[in-house]
Amino acid sequence: MNAVQLVDVIKRYGRRVALDGLSLVVPRGATCAVIGPNGSGKTTLFAVLAGLLRPNAGDVQLFGEGPFDARRHAGRLGLMPQDAAPSRHATLEQSLRYYAALAGLSPAAAEREAALWLERVRLEDRARSTPGQLSHGMRRRFSVAQAFLGDPELVLLDEPTAGLDPELAAELRSLLGERRGSATLLISSHLLSELEDLCDYAVFIDRGRLVQQGQMRQLLQADSRVRLKLTRGPDLERVRRRVGALELSWAAPTLDVLLRGDRPIDAANAELLRELLDQDVGILELTTGQSLEASYLSTRRQS
Amino acid sequence: MSAGVDLRKLALVARFELAEALRSRLVVVVLALYGAGAGLGAYIFSRTLEVAEERVREALLAGGGAQAVPDDLVRQQALPRVIAFLVADPALQRELLDVEPLALFYGFMALALVAPVVLLTSGGAHASEIASGGSRFVLTRVDRLSWSLGKLAGHALLLLVGLLVGALATALVAQLGRGIDMGSVLWLVRASLRAWVYGLAYLGIFSCVALLVRAPSGARAVSVALLFLLWIMRSVCKSSLVAARFPLLGQLVWLFPAEHELGLWSPRWLESLAASGALLGIGAGAFGLGYARFRRGDA
User: Fold this and answer.
1) Cβ distance of B139 and A70 shorter than 8 Å
2) Which domain holds residue A251?
3) Chain B contact for A86 (CB, 8 A cutoff)
């Protein structure tokens, strides 16, 4: 069962096409990275999923139940928009209680949820502050808190760590990590390294079209690619002869190895390490798969 | 998209909107100024009435040669002069003689000021939340109709609060001056409710503009322009020249809120009810127009 399914979705702003026949699926329970350059349609995608924007054409399915409908999906979808300001005069606590009540929680449950999420995003001491009294980072954390109120099944997070200092960004990543598996998360970010660690599924979009989608391991070629940091360049011909079906590329200090065929990575890796040690090459680091950035850039080049 | 209103969520939105408005300095200042204006106006009106009464008393004394003239008699003579100043229609003048003078004054003041007050306190309500992106926190939890109506209801309550504050200020001034009885207090409440019904028509119109324009400053500017336009168009429709040449156009005056202003004061309940219905219809129609566009469009 998919949490999200889009088929040939088109969204235009006047003459500009933001989503140009976008089709994609996100399985239920996935933590999905939504990756694309500026203006690729990520924010539009989130707004279409949340029912804020009406697509011009195409089919949008949430949980296989049709497009977003507040009556059917209230409390089941959380959205952290990129740029949105909450009510100017209400305190954070009042706003969160209001949002929770609108999501269908009883007054007592709404109060509990508001307090819980203020604590989780470390804003409990600012519960009685108004948005105008907060820093940008605090407003972002508030925005995260409201998105998770009432444990929605699907949470859309548009650039959640943008503008946060490194410590807060790490805390937020850890918080999102805790939510992994309990809800379907769609996260857009330009920091691909953080998405690589956090997500198990990814979609690449460009100019409103899908470029690539799939399990993160598959996209990173985690079962067919090895990267080694070495003390010096090895004899690549000798490596090829001994290990077999390989594509090798050396850019000091990294040896990038791509397996060909169905050979298990464990066996090929053992052979490769033995050969490197025989050549007396020091191995400083070994990682499987390529970086998400490399995967994204190579996919974009191919597309 | 489901049709119908979620009354529970509508009430939640209305309550939050009213509280949010009352937390706003602008709204509090506008309501305070309105209350102060009502109080000051009531004082000036009382003084004017006293002067008019004094003149009548002097005239009666001079004409009849009596030593003293009863207050009731003086008022019977003085009040028509004041009402004639407010209302041109002689039939309505006679009917309004039954109304407590202070309530009459407050009612007319409220009717005159209600449109600008609604514009200042509620003019850009829908637009400001859409423009700030705040609606994105809410519209994933409540359907657009319940949200739009909830905000409208919140501002309708705010207007009622404001009008009652003005009535209270008027009553306080009266109490400090010549004193006020319970009957007059009830008249003030009735005058507030009449002005409220009148204000609801403008609230619907301004909400329509806000839902169409979606930028608070733009919505307010368009609303001001629309107020002038409504005034001009009504004047055109009412002119004898237009009525003579284009009788159908003359009938369009019923679409303008100001046309029903005096109908609200009629003691004949059917007439008053028709005016109220027309005003509520204008407000609902305008709001419906704005909502129809908002429902189909992007938020």
Assistant:
1) yes
2) 225-302
3) yes
How far apart CA B276 and CA A161 sit, in angstroms, is: 53
Kindly determine whether residue A69 and residue B12, on different chains, have CB atoms separated by under 8 Å. no
B-chain CB neighbours of A55 within 8 Å are: none
Q: Clarify whether residues A263 and A159 are in a common domain.
A: no
Chosen for mutation from A10, A12, A13, A71 (greatest number of chain B CBs closer than 10 Å) is A71
Provide the residue-wise pLDDT of chain A in tens; the chain has 303 residues: 899 999 999 999 999 999 999 999 999 999 999 999 999 999 999 999 999 999 999 999 999 999 999 999 989 999 999 888 889 999 999 999 999 999 999 999 999 999 999 999 999 999 999 999 999 889 999 999 999 999 999 999 999 988 888 888 898 899 899 888 889 999 998 888 889 889 999 999 999 999 999 999 888 888 888 889 999 999 999 998 888 878 899 999 999 898 887 778 888 888 899 999 999 999 999 988 888 888 888 888 877
Q: State the complex-level ipTM.
A: 0.86
* Same structural domain, A245 and A266: yes
Find the DSSP H helices in chain A.
Answer: 42-49, 70-73, 92-102, 107-120, 136-148, 166-179, 192-198, 216-219, 236-243, 265-278, 292-302
Say if residue A253 is preceded by a cis peptide, omega within 30 of 0: yes
> A149 and A185 share a domain?
yes
Number of domains in chain A: 2
Yes or no, beta carbons of A53 and B142 under 8 Å apart: no
Q: Which amino acid would we find at residue B277? A: G
- CATH number of the domain residue A92 falls in: 3.40.50.300
Q: How far is B20 from chain A (nearest CA, A)?
A: 6
In a domain, B166, yes or no: yes
Q: Is residue B224 part of a domain?
A: yes
**Which of A219, A251, A272 marks a domain boundary?**
A219
CA atoms within a 13 Å half-sphere pointing along the CA-CB vector of B97: 15
- Residue B252: give the domain boundaries: 7-28+103-296
